[in-house]
Write a structure and sequence with these properties.
globular; 0% strand; mainly alpha
Length: 161
């Protein structure tokens, strides 16, 4: 049974939104730092341009098929456990991806990152929607999106360093 209770608008404070916004940043940062690292090192590990494209697309392939599954799981179990599980899996798979030089390991890490993001993404969107019950959905989704976008920007720059 879903244990998440909708937050009245007055309860959605900076302290309640910061972990969610931070998690959005971290997943975007991790996905794009690995992607940038793949691009930068593709020649060193023997990837053709086609194989690089396939490795990058695996993340999105996992999301296409698994977001509906994890969205339904979030409805059943509640958003928090699905978000936490997705973030833990994402972190573990990102660490594997950072240390891998074998294309097969990189493919599995990238596919796993996409699967873990599939757990996080619909659950976090549902939680943002619950926070926005007071009619400020645009404000909450805008802030959440900004933090994710910051992760998209910073991740590749970090991988380049």
């Amino acid at each position: 049974m879903n244990s998440d209770r909708p937050l009245p608008h007055a309860q959605a404070t900076g302290s309640s939104t910061a972990p969610l916004y931070g998690a959005g940043f971290v997943t975007a940062f991790g996905a794009h730092s690995i992607a940038a690292g793949l691009g930068a090192q593709s020649g060193n590990i023997g990837l053709t341009l086609l194989n690089l494209g396939i490795l990058l697309a695996l993340y999105d392939v996992a999301e296409v098929f698994l977001k509906p599954v994890f969205g339904a799981l979030s409805d059943r179990l509640g958003a928090k456990p699905v978000i936490v599980g997705g973030l833990l899996a994402f972190a573990a798979l990102s660490l594997i991806g950072l240390g891998a030089a074998d294309p097969l390991i990189l493919a599995l890490a990238r596919l796993g990152q996409g699967a873990a993001a599939s757990a996080f993404s619909p659950s976090s969107s549902a939680m943002v929607a619950r926070m926005a019950r007071g009619g400020k959905a645009g404000t909450y989704f805008g802030r959440y999106g900004s933090w994710k976008s910051l992760g998209y920007i910073v991740g590749p720059r970090w991988a380049r360093a």
